[in-house]
Automatic annotation (TrEMBL):
Alphabetical list of Pfam families matching this protein: Asp_protease_2 (PF13650)
Residues spanning the signal sequence: 1-23
InterPro entries: Aspartic_peptidase_AS, Peptidase_aspartic_dom_sf
Gene Ontology MF terms in the entry: aspartic-type endopeptidase activity
Keywords: Hydrolase, Protease, Signal
Membrane-spanning parts: none
Listed name of the protein: Aspartyl protease
Amino acid sequence: MKSKLSVFTTLLLIYCVFNTAYAEQFALQQSEGGTLYLRIHTRAVDDAQFLLDTGSSLTLLTPDTFKKLSANEPATEAGYVNARLANGQIKKIKTYRLTAFALSDACAFEDVQVAVMPRANNILGMGLLSKAGSLNISLLPPTLTLEKCDQMHTASTAPLSTH
């Protein structure tokens, strides 16, 4: 009986180690107007600033950021969406699915839908943020905590560092 219990405990421990998502905390930059930004440095994207936008369902990338990400991670076309812009206009935007999107060396998400739009800023929207299960934004100091980050340590997705 003891042997079966120890085998079960060992297998459970191995499962938990390799399949555990965990909370990850990120320092944010805050503009004078209070807007929050996350800056990432990855192997795919040398330096990119992302607006944290809980009012956006889309994660939006500049063409330059998308080109860098899709050079390392396969991207497939996912169609078009009609997006309401901050100025109220509705614009048809092409979307893609990335196999992975890393925010830090310990936090990446699989199968992320992104939209690409010229003359725009990178935006982390709820499409990506909701994959974390829950999130917490603190203002003093500006910090983002994502409760469920997936560990993905591959050469193409693992970031170098975050600021």
